[in-house]
Amino acid sequence: MAEPKPLPPASGHDKLMIGQSKAGVYMAHAILILGILIVAFPIYYTFVASTHSLQTILRPPLPLLPGPEFFNNYSEALFGGVGRIGGVSVATLLINTTIVAFGIAIGKIIISILSAYAIVFFRFPGRMFFFWLIFITLMLPVEVRILPTYKVMVDLGLIDTYTGLIVPLIASATATLLFRQFFLTIPGELVEAARVDGAGPWRFFKDILLPLSRTNIAALFVILFIYGWTQYLWPLLVTNRNDMNTIVIALRKMISFADADTEWHLVMVTSMLAIVPPILVVVFMQRWFVRGLVETEK
Amino acid sequence: MTPRVVFPNRILPYLLVAPQLAITLVFFYWPASQALYQSMLREDPFGLSSKFVWFANFRKVLSDPNYLNSVQVTVIFSVATAAVAMGTALLLAVMADKVVRSRGLYRTLMIWPYAVAPAIAGMLWLFLFNPSIGSLAYGLRMLGINWDPLLDGSQAMTLVVAAASWKQISYNFLFFVAGLQAIPKSLIEAAAIDGAGENKRFWTIVFPLLAPTTFFLLVVNTVYAFFDTFGIIHAVTGGGPGKATETLVYKVYNDGFVNLILGDSAAQSVILMIIVIALTAIQFRYVEKKVHYG
User: Fold this and answer.
1) Residue B11 belongs to some domain of the structure
2) What is the pLDDT along chain B (294 residues), one digit of tens a residue?
C-alpha cells in the first residue's frame, strides 16, 4: 500500500472554503464576539450589580467591574432573609426550586417511560385511545385553562404544597412521544430473545430497555430540569405562602418599581442564584442539552 | 408499522398508563371541559346564579375593544419577537458556520440565555433600562432620548420584545447552526466558482435550503411568544402602561384570576385553546414535510 496521504492541517485554524476571504472570516469573528457580548451582557451586569452596595446601584451608571460587597450581599440574601418576601431566606427558595425542578424532571420521565412502554410493548383494548388522550394534552397548556385548574387545586387542597407544584406538571405528551419513537426502533428479536430466556415484562424493562434508554433519559432530563426550574405561571397560581415560592416568583415579589425601597443588591444576588444553576446544567451537560432540544422537537 | 413482538399481559399495561392518565384527566381534561362549559355560562354579579347563554360570551369578548387591542398587541409582540430573535440568530449562525476556530466556545457562550427563566430575563432587562436606576437607561438619557418604559407604551413594548427575543436567540441559534451544517459545502463552493458573490450565495442557495428550519422555528417562536412570555409581561410591565403590552395570555390571567370575570375569561381560554390547536396542527402536519427545498 502507498504511504497514507498527509492529513489536512488540523482544525485549530480557520480553513478557507472556496469563495471565502480572510477578511470575511475576521468579520465573522467580530460579529460573533459582538453577538456574544450582547447575549452575555445582561447576565454579566447582574453579577456586577450583585457585588455592589445598594447605594452604588441606586446611583447609575453602575461600574463595569465587580465591587467589594460580594460576601456581604450573598450571605445576607442566602441566610439573612429578605424583608419584602416576609423574611424568607433565598436558601429556602433555592431548596424549593431544586425540589420542584427535580420532581418535575424525574416525574415526567418516569410516567412517560411507563406509558410509552405500555403503548409499544403491549396490545390491549383502548391502546390507541390512551395514546391520543396523552397526545392531545399538548394542546391544553396551563395558559388555556387557568381558572378551572386552579379550582381543582383548591378542591384537592394542593395549594402551597410540593405535590401541587409538581404533580400537575408531570404529564408529558412530548416525553411520551419521544420514548415511543425510540422504543419503536428496538428490534422485535430483542423482545423475543428476552422472552425465550424467560424474562418477564419487568425484567425486560429493567435489564434491557432502561439501559438502552440511558442517553435519551439524560438528554430529556436536562431539558426538563430547565423547564421545571423556569416555571412561572404555575407556581404563581398555586403558591401563596412566601416560604413555598420558587425563586423566580419570589424575585418578582421582591421588585417594586413604584417605590424606592426595593433592595436591589439582594434582588441581584437572588437573580444570580436563580440563573446560575440552570446555566451550569446547560453548559456542563451541553452535549445532552443539544440532543434533548433537537429530539423533543422531533 | 410491522406487527411487533409484545408481552401477552392483560392488566399490566393499564397499570403502566394509569399514572399518566390519572394526571391528564384530573388536571387537563376536567379543567379544560370546565373552561368550555363556563365559556357558555353567565353569572350574576354576586355569583349566586348562572344561566346558559350559548355563545353570548364569545360575541361579547370578540366585540370588546380591549380584547381586540389585546389581539393586536399579541400580534405585534409575536411578529417583532420572532423577527428579532430569528434574524439575530440567523446572522450569528451564518457567521459561526464560516469560522472553524473556537466554534465550540462561541456555541457554549451563546446558549446561556436558554437557561434563564423568561420572567428573570425580563427583570434583567428592566434593571438595565429602568428609568431611575438602569445604567443603560442613563446612557439613553445622556443621548437625549426621553426614555421611560413605565410611562410610554411603545417603549414598554420595545423592552419586552428585547427581553423575549434575547432569551430565544440561543434556541434559534442552535437550530440554525444545525440546519446550516446540513447544507453540502460543495454546493456553495460550486456557486462561488461560478462567480456568485457572498450575498448572492446566501440568498439563492443557503436561505432557500434553510426553509424547513426557518419554518419550524417560525412556529416554535410563535408558540413561545404567545404562551411562554407570560412571565416577561407579568414581571416587567403588568400589561401596562395602559394596556400597551397586554397580550392574550396575560389578559386571560388578569380577567379571570385577578378581576374574576369568569365567563369572559373562560371564553378567552377557549379562543386560546383553538389557537394552540391550530398551531400544533400546523407544526405536526406541515413542518419538515411540506417545506421541501424549494
Assistant:
1) no
2) 445 667 887 888 899 999 999 999 998 889 888 888 888 877 765 666 677 777 777 888 788 888 888 889 999 999 999 999 999 999 999 988 888 778 788 888 888 888 888 888 888 888 888 877 778 888 888 887 778 877 888 888 999 999 999 999 989 998 898 888 888 888 888 888 888 788 888 888 888 888 888 888 888 898 888 888 888 998 888 877 878 888 888 888 888 888 777 778 888 888 888 888 888 888 777 665 444 443
DSSP one-letter code for A89: -
Euclidean distance between CA atoms B205 and B192, whole angstroms: 11
Helices (H), A81-161: 90-121, 127-136, 146-155
Give the three cell numbers for residue A24.
Answer: 470575511
User: In the beta sheet, which residues pair with residue B52?
Assistant: B41
The whole-number pLDDT of residue A9 equals: 45
Which CATH number covers residue B92?
A: 1.10.3720.10
A121 Cβ under 8 Å from any chain B Cβ: yes
A132 touches chain B (CB under 8 A): no
Residue with cell 384527566: B25
Rounded distance, CA A123 to CA A129, Å? 12
How many whole angstroms separate alpha carbon B110 and alpha carbon B124? 17
Distance CA A158, CA A167 (A): 10
Task: Report the distance separating Cα A91 and Cα A247, nearest Å.
Answer: 9
Within a domain: B64: yes
B-chain CB neighbours of A143 within 8 Å are: 227, 230, 249, 252-253, 272
As a whole number of angstroms, the distance between CA B279 and CA A163 comes to 31
SS3 B257: helix
> DSSP secondary structure string, A61-85?
SPPSS--S-HHHHHHIIIII-BGGG
- Cα B158 from Cα B167, distance rounded (Å): 14
Dihedral over alpha carbons A225, A227, A231, A235 (to 10 degrees):
-50
DSSP bridge pairs for B41: B52
- Residue A218's nearest CA partner among A253, A182, A267, A189 is A182
Q: What residues form DSSP beta bridges with B51? A: B42
CB contact under 8 A, A39 and B32: no
Say if the Cβ atoms of B118 and A147 lie within 8 Å.
Answer: no
Residues of chain B with C-beta less than 8 angstroms from the C-beta of A124 = 10, 13-14
Q: Is residue B2 part of a domain?
A: no
How far apart are the C-alpha atoms of A127 and A145, rounded to whole Å?
27
Contacts with A138 from chain B: Cβ below 8 Å: 280
Closest CA to A293 of A221, A231, A234: A221
What is the Cα–Cα distance from A196 to A189, expressed in whole angstroms? Answer: 10
Structural domain for B265, as ranges: 55-290
* Cell numbers describing residue A226: 430547565
pTM for this structure?
0.86
User: How many domains are there within chain B?
Assistant: 1
Domain-located, residue B29: no
Domains and their CATH numbers in chain A:
85-294 (1.10.3720.10)
